[in-house]
Every structure is written in structure tokens, then in C-alpha cells.
Amino acid sequence: GNPLHLSSLNHISLVCRSVEESTDFYQNVLGFVPIRRPGSLKFDGSWLNGHGIGIHLLQSEDPESMRKKKVINPKDNHISFQCESMGMVEKKLNEMGIDWVKQRVEEGGIYVDQLFFHDPDGFMIEICNCDDMPVVPLAGNVVRSCSRLNLQ
């Protein structure tokens, strides 16, 4: 069921040490596009859009108290993006000097590769070829891929 009649993910909000640094990261590493924020918002921030979702970056009121980057742990909170070529992503991350960790998941002879890395504030990003693995609901029919799962 879909008791709230949700239709899609709209955005995620992330508190940042530096909105400028994070905007640069999401724009130049992940390909998001800055969009206009409502003028009624009375705090520093940046809105970006891309890949079917929005990212709202909010300036921390106390940047020094924010956690520092930690070890890349694939079991930590993260957001995941589907990609066209894992090899190209690895190459680009290396060229940009971004540290990453690779993990492989196998199910029934299907392999999914995952790359994990942090944004400037330590929030984890995953890039994967997850659509290669069918989504199998615990009840019902097989769905072709996560990006095609309909909650209606």
C-alpha cells in the first residue's frame, strides 16, 4: 500500500560547513544544477536539482561543531545514484582526487558494483549499477529495477 499517496522523492536537505564548498561539490562532481530559492527564506543556503531529485544545502549555524569526515563505511547513512559506467566513475573520481571505497554485491549470478565516498561535510554518496539487479518485492511481481518501482 501507499497510505500517504506518495508519488516521488522531492529533495533531501543537508546541513553544511560551507554552502559554497558543498554547492561546488554537488554541481561539479555529481552534476546538479543550482536553482532559485524562495526569497522568503531568511537563512543561507543553496538549492540544486538533478537526476530527478533536489538537494537543499543549509548553512550550519555552528560549522566548527559539525562532525569531521570519517572512515568510509558502506553501512553508514547515504544517498545512492545510478550510473551508466562504473569504470568511468572510478576514473573521474580518481582524476578529482576523491577517496572512495568499492564494494560488490552478488545475487543469483548478477553483480552490482558500488562506489562510496564523502561530500565535503562527510555525508556519504554511493554510485552504483544497482539497476542491473531486479527488485523483488516480498509480495507480488518482480520489478525490472529500483528506478522503476511504483508505490501506487
Protein architecture, described:
The protein is an alpha/beta fold. The protein has helices at 19-28, 86-96; strands spanning 11-16, 33-35, 45-50, 53-59, 78-82, 101-107, 110-118, 124-128. The protein folds into two domains: 1-65, 2,3-Dihydroxybiphenyl 1,2-Dioxygenase, domain 1, CATH 3.10.180.10; 67-152, 2-Layer Sandwich (Signal recognition particle alu RNA binding heterodimer, srp9/1), CATH 3.30.720.110. The longest helix has 11 residues, at 86-96. Mean pLDDT is 90; it is low at 148-152.
Features:
2 domains, globular, 2 helices, disordered C terminus, about 150 residues, 4-stranded mixed beta sheet, Signal recognition particle alu RNA binding heterodimer, srp9/1
CATH class of the largest domain: Alpha Beta
The residue fraction in helices comes out at 10-25%
Estimate the strand proportion: 25-35%
Strand order of the largest sheet: 1-4-3-2
- The run of helices and strands is EHEEEEHEEE
Number of strands: 8
Sheet having the most strands: 4 strands, mixed
* Count of distinct structural domains: 2
- If you average the pLDDT, what whole number results? 90
Amino-to-carboxy terminus distance? 7 Å
Question: In the CATH scheme, what's the topology name of the largest domain?
Answer: Signal recognition particle alu RNA binding heterodimer, srp9/1
What's the gyration radius in Å?
Answer: 17 Å
The number of helical runs is 2
| Coarse structural class | alpha/beta
Organism: Genlisea aurea
Domain VOC: 8-130
Pfam families: Glyoxalase
Protein name: VOC domain-containing protein
